[in-house]
Amino acid sequence: MRNGVRGALAGIAAAAVALGLAEFVAVFTGARSAPLVAVGGFVVDHVPEPLKQFAIDTFGTHDKTALLTGTVVLLAAFAALIGWLSLRNIWYGVAGIALFGVIGVAAALTRPDAGAEAAVPSVLGAAVAGVVLWRLVPPRSSAEPAEMDSADRRRFLTQAAVVAGAAAASGLAGRWLATRRTVSEARRAVRLPAPASPAPAVPAGSDLEITQLAPYVTSNRAFYRIDTALVLPQVDPDSWTLKIHGRVRNPITLTFEQLLARPMVERYVTLACVSNEVGGDLIGNARWLGVPLKDLLDEAGPLDGADQVVGRSADGWTCGTPTAVLRDGRDALLAVGMNGEPLPIQHGFPARMVVPGLYGYVSACKWIVEMELTSFADFDAYWIPRGWSQQAPIKTQSRIDAPRSRNNLTAGAVTVAGVAWAQHRGIRKVEVRVDGGPWQEATLARTVSIDTWVQWSWRWDATRGMHRLQVRATDATGAVQPEEERPPDPDGATGWHSVDVEVG
Asked: Is the pLDDT at 459 greater than 60, yes or no?
């Protein structure tokens, strides 16, 4: 084994120990203080918007996993370089580890509400990594051979194996302890009250039950998740409070028990992410249970000029929602339930905002702990300085779910089907065309309300060859879905969804 390889492996082993120990310590100092999570969170907050959108487009709901995996790969490369440099001078390696520690500390301390204890995982991890590197790559003279003999190689591999085992054990122990400290048990203990105003029954025929067509109601497991949280906030409902303050006459603080005691409303509402590309799946329809936000705001009494409600998450994320929208009579909810059960942790337990007709980045605050009445002129929420629009009504959109591009179709009758949405306006018409020909009106399924998507279908007499199917929708105001193709930035994608199919 050449010394260069030994140095690289030693650097990687030292980094692994640092991360494993930091993962364990972060159980007690907060999950966001772990170096990987802290650095990843810093990247999420500061990466250029085109790169962030590229990650969402490429990896979808797995964008966070991709980020953490990429961070580990880059760290491994950096650690290998540190180990290789330490062969020339051990102090180069020590300096590299110190730099790693400084980056981890700086990133952890920039997390919202971070205290001095957030620095502890990175400091301890770097200190132990330095000791490990010194042990595996001790200072050497230039006269030593470029290769180790068999005894040295066995000794090094044994030490490296012990280090790797210790790193894995520490990391796994930290992960196990972290799972033991989740609020899953507290969530299971929650008993949701019966709604004072139940959701309307889903009409027969709302779900066409066509293969590949998205179901009318999206399950909690399948519902999309897009947010900036690399680790799920663990908010104990027993200690949770919601503070409604700012430019109001009557500031309010609610406990979870007090919230559950209020009259509950249950409604079907379709939510959509502004990052959803034309034809994308970052959209879902669920049955939500919660307290009308209008009632809470009316009780607080917004002052003149308080045209924005800033929702603040337990992890510091913010969204800015027009006050007027939350008080205009739509079923905007402070939700505690989703499809008949307490909110899943990944969807905002114990409470979140659900607002029909607005993209999530201006309305769907998960793990909400604060609502501050202010103005759009005085405060920009998280996404606004990053180039996204302050006002974000959901655009009229439609999508072809069946058939799909890789389907093998047979000439004859083919059912074309999909979904269309224009939340809080409703869909009046969906049209399909083949190969740029005349538009043909599809049949709309029934729906609960204008706040949900609607399924549609159209019978196509398919002929052999390659064909392009296109769809467009018209909302209840008469506005037709625009043909112009635009990316999601800054206020939602536009364009007609197309599917190219081959009929044999």
From this structure: yes
Give residue-wise pLDDT tens across range 202-217. 999 999 999 999 999 9
* CA pair distance 148, 151, nearest whole angstrom: 8
215's tokens: 């179901």
Q: Which fold has domain 397-503?
A: Immunoglobulin-like (2.60.40)
Residue 159 reports pLDDT greater than 90:
no
Written as six digits, the tokens of 489 are 């930035």
What is d(CA 61, CA 100) in angstroms, rounded to the nearest whole number?
Answer: 29
What tens digit of pLDDT does each residue of 304-351 get?
Answer: 999 999 999 999 999 999 999 999 999 999 999 999 999 999 999 999
Q: What is the rounded CA–CA span in Å between residue 452 and residue 270?
A: 5
Inter-residue contact 166 to 141 (CB < 8 Å) = no
Please state whether beta strands 283-292 and 333-338 pair in parallel, antiparallel, or not at all (unpaired). Answer: antiparallel
CA distance 92 to 96: 6
For 77, residues 6+ apart whose C-beta sits below 8 A from its C-beta are none
Predicted local confidence at residue 162, as pLDDT: 73
pLDDT band for position 35 (cuts 50, 70, 90): confident
Q: Is the pLDDT of residue 144 over 60?
A: no
Angle, vertex CA 315, rays to CA 67 and CA 74, nearest 5: 20
The pTM for the full model equals 0.82
Instruction: Kindly report, as residue ranges, where domains of CATH 2.60.40.650 are found in the chain.
Output: 397-503
Cα gap 89→102, rounded to integer Å = 21
329: closest CA among 289, 364, 372, 298?
298
CB 458 within 8 A of CB 358: no
Structure tokens at 421: 């949405």
* Burial (CB count <10 Å: 0-12, 13-18, 19+), residue 400: buried
- Which long-range contacts (C-beta less than 8 Å, at least 24 apart) are formed by 91-100? 93/11, 93/133, 93/137, 94/130, 94/133, 94/134, 96/11, 97/14, 97/18, 97/126, 97/129, 97/130, 97/133, 98/126, 98/130, 100/15, 100/18, 100/35, 100/75, 100/126, 100/129
* 117 close to 29: Cβ distance less than 8 angstroms: yes
Q: Which two tokens stand for residue 239?
A: 């200690």
For residues 361 and 490, is the Cβ–Cβ distance under 8 A?
no
Phi-psi group of 362: left, alpha or beta (phi > 0 → left; psi -120 to 50 → alpha; rest → beta): alpha
Q: Measure Cα distances from 128 to 10, 16, 94 in Å.
A: 13, 10, 11
DSSP summary character for residue 4? H
